[in-house]
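Researcher: Last one for today. Full complex below.
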Amino acid sequence: MLRQRPTAIDLLRTRCIDAYDLVEQSPSAAAWAAYMQTTYADKLLAADPKLHDGTIDVVSAAYASAAACLDVARGGGGSVPDAPPHWRTPIRSNEQLAGMRDALEALRTYLAYELHDENATALARIDAERAKVERLWIRRPPPEIRGAIGSALAIGLDAAYALGRETFASR
Amino acid sequence: MGLFRPARTVTGPHGEYWELYVSKTALPAWREGKAGSFEDGSAYGGRADLLELPFVVVSAVWGTLIAPLLRFLALLPVSFVRGRRSRAVRIEAVSTFPREVFLWTTTDDGVERVLDEISAGLASGKFVQPLGAVYSGRED
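Model: Here's the assembly. Have a good evening.
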């Protein structure tokens, strides 16, 4: 059987493989930052495996940043970024939107579990952006709607990242 | 819902008259091409200029009218089919003097509510941003 050569993305992802376990075993703001960005990159990769138009930049940046956050969480020094990677253009493809939405849903579920409250007030900012997305989510959206959905998802992901850092910083 | 009949008409607080059009079809943009350029005929005197004149006229008509019209007609069926297949709806507010067009995009299940909010906003002199709609501003 032929073995495929690992791509640069595979190599980056390998460095983040512990992010899912570390946030459970040694919760901290840095472990959350690594977990959040690994989840974001994984969901984008699953929704857009061909890595169209900018996906590769955000996925690579998220994995690289997650790996650095893992080093911080293990006491290796360095700092945790203020926000997850952002897109360089305003209009997202349908695949990119699907990946961003899956990531936001997964992170929201994780945070609600950590806060021991499905309707915690701390989740309100994330839920407001989710509501905007749900109102606009249709098949074959035109660029205007894709732009608005992408913007709401990006704000929601930033809010989830910030809330997680705040939540885990007190552990 | 139609391209040529307004869904609502609104008068603003200072007498501005607005027509709101609802459509699923984004008409192709009217893009004028470049008319062919001709060399300066001064080396051959005024006679060369006169000889070039018909070509200049034909080129101008082609670039500003015929080519854009052919492009528009070629893209129109694509725009129409794309609009039919999507649940997105465009709401355009058109004022006549001066002619300005403002665009909102929403989904088909929110059209009436969004139209109500836009109408109420224009009646009070505001461009509102209703929930479930994307305001894109003035169209060129």
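Chain B has a mean pLDDT of 84. The helical segments of chain B are 46-85, 111-123.
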